[in-house]
Amino acid sequence: MKNFVYSIPTKIFFGKGQIEKIGTEILKYGKKVLLVYGKGSIKSNGIYDKVIEILKENEIEYFELGGIDPNPRTESVYKGAEICKENKVDLILAMGGGSTIDCAKAISLQSKYDGDFWEDLYINGRKELIKEVTPVASILTLSATGSEMNGNSVISKKESNLKVGFSHEKIKPVFSVEDPEYTYSVNKYQTCAGAIDIMSHLFEQYFSTEKDGFLQNRLIEGILKTVIHYAPIAIENPKDYEARANIMWASSLGLNELVSYGKLSTDWATHNIEHQLSAVYDITHGIGLGILTPAWMKYVLSENNIHRFVDYGKNIWNLSGTDMEIAEKSIEKTKEFFTSLGCPSSLSEINIDDTHFEKMAENAVARGAFGSMKKLNKEDVIAIYKLAL
Ligand code: NZQ
Ligand code: ZN
Question: Ligand 2: distance of its center to the CA of 36 in Å?
């Protein structure tokens, strides 16, 4: 196992009614808050009204930036940072899914930075330029990305068809509220996409050529089994508290570094390949992953890494047979499961053809070949897109 520093500083308020805690928590940082939210779900399900009531009770002044897009854009980040600078905001409170939280994190970076967050941080990765940020907190309303408990932020720049991620310790939320009831209003499509996203984060950390990571892989299998058990239940009955609660906690544990601390390597190829797809076509991240994952699995499977597929097939899907039979069957099982949740099974099903494969593959390899199960170059990425057609 590699050396690691365990640092998961986000305080989680999990469960029914935990929103009541936000007044006291916010006051630890100051009396001025920027509320960041999406296109309206928090207004129709009552979360917005509840937050405003609590802010008023606690005499906390608030500013607002609504309308954040799924696959959030650079423009929203600049707008939010302006509001923070002008009003000396003490804390940014994101209310929504990963897009809203990611946008709040980018606002937090830009609000205390004189240069351009996009060029200097997201494109050129110059983490050392970050000296100070505005603290971020979140009220999670969609279980998927793990953004509520990690330091990642993924932003899109529409003009250049680029979608880029950035990570920094300082933008891990200082606290997050996770009330499973807030996800009752998430529709079947987004519930399916969220479940696949959680599973994909786990795959990215599970699949690697190294034979280390015994403990980490068992933790991952536990979370995978949880999602496989509860996602169909949540889709069937959106108000099943246990299902929503298990999926919500799985979302946070799936991508807060806990399951990868100490592992020699992780993969993250499918995410990179998907980000290019949603950058160009603006599709839902989890749906892109659902289509690409089985194609990626088929493409990278080799004698070199088959042990990982065998573990996966035996421990998750109870498969038996020769190693190759187990591996191939495990890929079929994965695809069957995703389609059973309602995920389209190919790119052509969502009207995507090969027009932009070259350019998307070029963007995917902009920082060089990537992936642990198999190092992928531009031609490999094109081949995976074609397998997913
Ligand atoms: O905009 P509103 O009205 O809020 O509607 C949203 C949006 O349309 C809706 N929604 C959210 N909560 C709801 C709800 N609808 C009804 N009831 C609720 N309680 O769901 C739609 C999708 O929301 P979004 O935030 O875009 O979804 P998600 O959480 O899947 O986030 C996706 C974004 O996160 C990035 C993705 O690339 C994508 O841009 N990722 C972020 C990561 C991270 N920070 O660690 C890692 C991931 O791999 C991912 O890349
Ligand atoms: Zn993801």
Answer: 21
Q: Which residue from 47, 99, 284 has its CB within 8 A of the most atoms of ligand 1, so it is best to mutate?
A: 99
Residues of the chain with CATH 3.40.50.1970: 11-182
Q: Which class would CATH give 187-387? A: mainly alpha
Ligand 1 in reach of 173 Cβ (< 6 A) = no
141, HSE (Cβ side, Cα atoms, 13 Å): 24
Length of the chain equals 389
Residues of the chain with CATH 1.20.1090.10: 187-387
Rounded CA separation 374/6 (Å): 28
Q: What is the pLDDT along the chain (389 residues), one digit of tens a residue?
A: 999 999 999 999 999 999 999 999 999 999 999 999 999 999 999 999 999 999 999 999 999 999 999 999 999 999 999 999 999 999 999 999 999 999 999 999 999 999 999 999 999 999 999 999 999 999 999 999 999 999 999 999 999 999 999 999 999 999 999 999 999 999 999 999 999 999 999 999 999 999 999 999 999 999 999 999 999 999 999 999 999 999 999 999 999 999 999 999 999 999 999 999 999 999 999 999 999 999 999 999 999 999 999 999 999 999 999 999 999 999 999 999 999 999 999 999 999 999 999 999 999 999 999 999 999 999 999 999 999 99
- For 303, residues 6+ apart whose C-beta sits below 8 A from its C-beta are none
Q: Is the CB of 384 under 6 A from ligand 1?
A: no
The CATH T-level fold of domain 11-182 is Rossmann fold (3.40.50)
